[in-house]
Amino acid sequence: MKSKNIFVKSTLILIMGGIITKILGFIIRIIYTRIVGAEVIGLYSLVMPTYSLLITIATLALPTTISKLIAENKHNSLKIISTSTILIMIINFIVVLFMIISAKFIAIHMLHEERCYLLIIAMSLTFPIISISSIVKGYFYGKQNMIPNVVSNIIEQLVRGLLIYLFVPFLMAKSEILAAASLFIFSFIEEFTSIIVNLFFLPKNIKIEKHNLIPDKYTLKNILSISLPTVSSRIIGNIGYFFEPIILKNLLLYSGYSNNYILVEYGAYNAYTIPILTVPSFFITAISSALIPEISRHYLKNNYKVMTKRLKEALLFSLSIGLIYSILLIFCDSFILTKLYNTTLGLNYIKLLTPIFPLFYIENVLMSFLQAVNKAAITMKITIVGVIVKLLSLALFSLSHIGMYSLVISEILNIVIVVFLNIYFVRAFLKNYKYHNFSFSL
Fold first, then answer.
1. What does DSSP assign to residue 401?
2. Does this model's pTM top 0.85?
3. CA 71, CA 389: separation in Å to the nearest integer?
4. Quick check: is 36 in a domain?
5. Of the candidates 55, 394, 109, the residue with the CA atom closest to the CA atom of residue 255
6. How many domains does the chain have?
7. Hey, CA dihedral for 71, 74, 76, 82, is it positive or negative?
8. pLDDT in tens, 40-91
């Protein structure tokens, strides 16, 4: 009963915090997109896949890793944190150096947009501070203390909103590139603020001894044994995302579409379509974040009955949210889009993706479960299949003269295949432990 109370409490805290954060984030995004326009959003969207790939490498999936390790070894928290910090700083030094050297090549020869050079440099400088922040957040997730992260996330959004309101109009008047790069610069300030806020929630009686600050091979091995399979899966997914605008832009240009069309439509897809479709995603993030330490603890105790119950609860909640929101979108998509963003750009893409997005809302829950039971290698293989299908279909449809719909179709194929593979392997895992009563129908 106590375990269930902790899980439910953690989930509810994250959901309530997520609601506030999402509302603030939406307001901020609306203000930003209205100030800068579709072309600047298009430039920002072009570099975001590169950013996602490299931030995944730089952070090494540490929030998930630390959360799991601390949930299982609460007495060894400081050793886990210190070892993670040294490891992540070495990785960040390499990643930032690589980005500074290769930024111009990526901008000119891969993205075919020289204006992206400054954006790539700006984003690379945010990696170290974001990585440190992810370690701190992972610590509190592992302790199943969700309040520090909720408070810090809300303050992050408030700081972001204030910075955008004060500086973006001025930067936009000076240069579109500066306005786009400012979001990365602001990220540095936000993450620094988040770290400071989280530090106030550390236990007052915490004892820091010298031996706890010295990394050791055993702790490093444990960190890498979890983080490498997990981050490999995410890296593969982000490699697909990295090549998405490269394949899309090059093949659409080859097919006769203009550079301006691609920037505006790709910007609309990323700035309007996806944000509208993923409005309730904070619910899923909250459930997945609370699920990992909960499943990890019960897996360690061989308590598969409780594991199965928690998974069913998480899936039911996630799917219900996805279905309710999708039904709302089917009837109100145009109203929501125009009221929020004062545009109809991206509306046709929303109409096509809405029926399939309930599946998207259970994907993270299924993958979190597999990671918590040490099956991250399976999630990596599933991600590989999804990326291959998405990139091949994207290339094929981009040559079929259907414009940005090539991206929409490839996204649908990716979601369907990845979700059903996850369901298959979760069922197989539970069946091995003779829990045949697990059922999930779509």
1. T
2. no
3. 36
4. yes
5. 394
6. 1
7. positive
8. 877 888 888 888 888 888 888 777 778 777 877 655 777 888 888 888 899 8
